[in-house]
Amino acid sequence: MSTYSVGSMPESITAASEGFATSALAFIEGNTAPGLAYGVVFDGKLLLAGGAGMATIGGQAPDARAIFRIASMTKSFTAAAVLRLRDAGLLRLELPVADYVPELSSVALPTSDSRPPTVRDLLTMQPGWATDDPWADRQESMQPADYSAMLSNGFAFNERPGTDFEYSNLGYTILGRVITNVSGVQYQEYVTTQILRPLGMNNTGFTLDDVDATLLADGHFKRDEQWHVEPVAPTGEFAPLGGLFSNVEDLALWVTFMCDAFAAGERNAGDEVLSRDSRREMQQGHRHIFSSVNVDLSAGPLVMSSPMYGFGLMNAPTPRFGTTVGHSGGYPGYGTHMVWHPVTGVGAIALSNGRYGGAYRVATQMLRELLIASDAPSRVISPTSATKSAFIHVNRLLVQWDDAAADALFSPNVDEDEPRAHRVQALAEQIAKLGGITGPAEQISGTAASHLVWWVPCATGRLRVEIRLAPQAQQKVQTLNLRAVPHPSAELATTARLVVEGLFDGDAWPLIVAIADDLDTSTVLQMASVMRAFESTVELAPLPTSADSSTSATFRVKGGAMSYELALSIDDSSQATKVSLTMVALTSDDNALVRM
Predict the structure, then answer these.
(1) What are the two backbone dihedrals, phi and then psi, of residue 30, each rounded to the nearest 5 degrees?
(2) Is the pTM of this model over 0.85?
(3) What range does the domain containing 330 cover?
(4) How far apart are CA 254 and CA 77, in angstroms?
(5) Category of 434 on φ-ψ map: left (φ > 0), alpha (ψ -120 to 50) or beta
(6) In angstroms, rounded to a whole number, what is the distance separating the alpha carbons of residues 532 and 268?
(7) What band does 267 get if pLDDT is binned at 50, 70 and 90?
(8) How many angstroms separate the first and last alpha carbons of the chain?
(9) Are 220 and 346 within one domain?
(10) Which of 427, 453, 486 is the last residue of a domain?
(11) In angstroms, rounded to a whole number, what is the distance separating the alpha carbons of residues 94 and 297?
(12) Is 478 left (phi over 0), alpha (psi -120 to 50) or beta?
């Protein structure tokens, strides 16, 4: 269970500031962009900001006020505008987009059994059209008449609408036309007056006249090893895909606006712009993008990724920290990124002024370092009142069984699944096996508000207790699982430690650990080589997660990338008679924080 506390995050940000400055400088020295501005957001404030390189050729480093074109980060503002109109009852996401953009009504579909693309399809990058980077980035300034003519000419489909993810800038430009047609005002005006200015984003806009142009960080491209200034394309019909100008200061407000949707309680700050529910909807994963495993060991621990696209935002689940949300931007002259961790409300922003500059590397690394330093949880689980009550009453039953209390606590299926008399007898036998209960519950964990797992200390071991409550309004316990886990003998604990240390340090069985003549260690050695490849350190849990006896148990071995289980048995002479090492999937539930 995580030791995270809200108070630890500002300390982690302060401690990391020097490292962030070094990372920013390294980014510039890599010739990805002439300049970079960055910032860290937490608890509604821009707690740290800095910059490196040059905002203009020969000029000073950009800071939090420097203006950059934020490219595809604009898509989240476009999506917010669509949802605002949806919430007002002016459009429906499930309807064909042609209902709101008549030029699309005659567009031929890829097959006779295809349905037309819907507004939702465009929001989630699944209209089926061929992906369009970098073509679309050069169409920023297209005028309305030319745009309408282009729409009427139709598009090339790679997939049937609604069946697969394929990044579509074009789809977001059409959403801009939807906003114009439904609201009755031009897209740029609607976003500015209904979203940007009400949020206090006064240095964000679609033209240099909308912002303080004296703060502009010129966009650049590299040719013949020299940086050249990228001309500024005027705003036009392709602006909804990436045309906004902004800075770290203003984007901190946007990140805060998104994180506030998950904050405890029912705060209404910003609801006049977009409801908390719609903001949460934007940040959910609506369309799977791909799955990957990063095995570049020089880059750090093994990372498994399965990102999804929401509404103008990407949702990226991670095993250790749960979900992060954000979006990159790449445009002629600029490369940008914003990313945040909804559970803790911490976010990172990086803006660069080099064509398609990889600012995402800086922002994602900043966020990851902060989450590690603060031991951030993957989720914060607040058990329901019924779950908290059940926790108390189950612990009482463990000490003194009471049929009347059990009747009030359990759903009927509990006795149907296991007869009451058998359950009570098994409980008594397990507690007796462990020498009796010696203390209160500890190590409380869970995966949902109606689910808890905890350990009850006993004289010679621990009792693992798990409850899950049913979904009715008057919740009752539907699952009660108990498992007695004896403490390991001193000999077993020592052998487990020596096995883990020996396997991690070398490629042969540790000679200090005696093994039975018929014990085959080849499979264990193979898994140990995998563990050494993935991990820089490993830690053996002192107490087992399951055990048949004090000389036969399964221990958790925690690494930075994965977790492992060591199953070990010894005989009376401390010879290993059974040993196995298996990899265990690390899930976000392993790092959830339960707040009772």
Answers:
(1) -80, 0
(2) yes
(3) 8-70+202-376
(4) 9
(5) alpha
(6) 49
(7) low
(8) 13
(9) yes
(10) 486
(11) 44
(12) alpha
Residue at 225: amino acid letter: E
Q: Which amino acid is at 271?
A: D
Residue 357 has which token pair?
């500059």
CA angle 139, 141, 143 (to 5 degrees): 105
Tokens linked to 321 = 């920290």
Tokens of 571: 């005989």
Place of tokens 């190590």: 443
The domain total for the chain is 4
Residues 175 and 223 in one domain: no
Q: Which residues contact 416 (CB under 8 A, 6 or more apart)?
A: none
Q: Where are the alpha helices (DSSP H) in 354-399?
A: 359-373, 385-399
List residues bridging with 52 in a β-sheet: 36
Q: Please report where in the chains the tokens 């490993």 appear, as a residue.
A: 538
Q: What is the mean pLDDT of the chain?
A: 94
Q: Considering only CA atoms, which of 554, 406, 555 is closest in space to residue 467?
A: 406
Q: Angle CA(61)–CA(63)–CA(64) in degrees, nearest 5?
A: 165
**Distances in whole angstroms, Cα of residue 585 to Cα of each of 97, 541, 576:** 41, 17, 26
Q: Which residues contact 115 (CB under 8 A, 6 or more apart)?
A: 96, 109, 160, 161, 162
CA atoms within 13 A on the CB side of 331: 34
In the block, tokens 């498994």 appear at 304
The answer to whether residue 75 sits within a structural domain is no
pLDDT digits (tens, 9 = 90+) for 165-208: 999 999 999 999 999 999 999 999 999 999 999 999 999 999 99
Q: Of all residues in the chain, what percent are helix, strand and coil, respectively (each to 5)?
A: 35, 25, 40
Compute how many other C-beta atoms are within 10 angstroms of the C-beta atom of residue 161: 21
Boundary of a domain, candidates 448, 467, 486:
486
Q: pLDDT digits over 62-116, tens only? A: 999 999 999 999 999 999 999 999 999 999 999 999 999 999 999 999 999 999 9
288-347 pLDDT, tens digit per residue, is 998 876 654 444 455 667 899 999 999 999 878 999 999 999 999 999 999 999 999 999
> Which residues partner with 339 through β-bridges?
326, 348
- Written as six digits, the tokens of 309 are 């696209």
Instruction: Please give the structure tokens belonging to residue 100.
Output: 């709101």
Q: Among 337, 315, 318, which residue's Cα sits nearest to residue 328?
A: 337
Residue appearing with tokens 């995966």: 447
Question: Would you state the structure tokens that stand for residue 296, as one six-digit string?
Answer: 């570049």
DSSP 216: B
Task: Give alpha helix (H) positions in 378-489.
Answer: 385-399, 403-409, 412-417, 420-433
188, part of any domain: no
Query: Phi/psi class of residue 514: alpha, beta or left (left: φ > 0; alpha: ψ in -120 to 50)?
Result: beta
Question: Same domain for 251 and 338?
Answer: yes
Q: Would you list the DSSP string of 34-70?
A: SEEEEEEEETTEEEEEEEEE-SSTTSPPP-TT-BEE-
Residues 156, 158, 164: CA angle, nearest 5 degrees: 135
